[in-house]
Design goal:
The chain is of the alpha/beta class. The chain has one domain: 3-Layer(aba) Sandwich (Rossmann fold). It has a 5-stranded parallel beta sheet with strand order 3-2-1-4-5, sandwiched between helices.
C-alpha cells in the first residue's frame, strides 16, 4: 500500500489543492494532507480552522487523512512510512523553488520520491495568498475555493481582518 504526503500550509485550501488531491488519490492508496507549520509564513487561519476546511472540502474519505507536522518534511515522511511527496506546480515560477525543495528532500530522505502534478488550467493562476488578498478586499473568490472557505474568508473580512 503506497502512502503519499501532500504537504502545505493550505491557508486556505483552494480548488486547485482539492484537484491535486483528488487526482493523486487515483495514483496512491492513501494520501496524508500534511499541514506544515511554516516558520516563514503567518497564517490567517488557525491550524484547527485549516484542518476543518480541508475535511469539509474533501468529505469523508478513508483514503485521506489530515494531519499537521512541525520540522522537516523528510523526517515526517520517514515517521509516517510515506514514500512519495506530492507537490502541485502552477507555473514556471513555482518550478525553481519546488525543484530545490525536491532535491533537498531527496538528500535528506533518498527513499522518498517527489511527484509533481500540474494544476488544472482553471486554477493555474490561483494561490492561497492571492485568494486571501482578493477576498479580504471584498472580491469574489467563490469559484476559486470550496464553499466553506469562501464563507470563512467572508467572516474574517467582517471581523475587520485586512490583507
Amino acid at each position: 500500500m503506497t502512502l503519499a504526503v501532500y504537504p502545505g500550509t493550505f491557508d486556505p485550501i483552494t480548488n486547485g489543492h482539492v484537484d491535486i488531491l483528488r487526482r493523486s488519490l487515483k495514483i496512491f492508496d492513501r494520501v496524508v494532507v500534511a499541514l506544515a507549520d511554516n516558520v516563514r509564513k503567518t497564517p490567517l487561519f488557525t491550524l484547527a480552522e485549516r484542518q476543518a476546511m480541508i475535511v469539509d472540502a474533501v468529505g469523508s474519505n478513508p483514503q485521506v487523512e489530515v494531519d499537521a507536522f512541525q520540522g522537516l518534511l523528510a523526517e515526517y515522511c520517514r515517521r509516517r512510512g510515506a514514500t512519495v511527496v506530492i507537490r502541485g506546480l502552477r507555473a514556471l515560477a513555482d518550478f525553481e523553488y519546488e525543484f530545490q525543495l525536491a532535491h533537498m528532500n531527496r538528500r535528506l530522505a533518498p527513499d522518498v520520491e517527489t511527484m509533481f502534478l500540474m494544476t488544472g488550467e482553471d486554477s493555474f493562476y490561483v494561490s492561497s495568498s492571492l485568494v486571501k488578498e482578493v477576498a479580504l478586499m471584498g472580491g469574489d473568490v467563490s469559484r476559486m475555493v470550496p464553499r466553506s472557505v469562501a464563507a470563512a474568508l467572508a467572516d474574517k473580512r467582517k471581523q475587520g481582518v485586512t490583507p
